[in-house]
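Technical note accompanying the year-one report. For the benefit of new consortium partners, we illustrate the data format agreed upon in the data management plan: each record pairs a sequence with a structure-token string. No post-processing was applied to the example shown here.
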Amino acid sequence: MDAYNKTSCYILKQKVKPGKEGNVLVDEMTTWFDDKNFEVVARNYTLSYDAGVYDFKVQMEVQLTHAGTYLVPALIRYNGNWKVIFKKRERGVFTATLFDFK
């Protein structure tokens, strides 16, 4: 347990066993659940894959909020790179803040 943005949360962390990295898409995922109602408060992802003709490695942080009865992303932080055969490696870094849901 720990606090995330002043919300008391349970934390679930999943991580790939060493030596299995090349066989999976999700290397690591951490989820914070509100300890009162078990709703997802936030999630961090580390994704990667190497298929020979393409590869990528991406890290994302997603914070969630309520929009009416829906649970939606309020903040997305993305840092990643990818490569497709015969093309240059591309990199992307951005932060998206989402609000005013109707």
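Partners are asked to follow this layout when depositing records. The longest strand covers residues 70-84.
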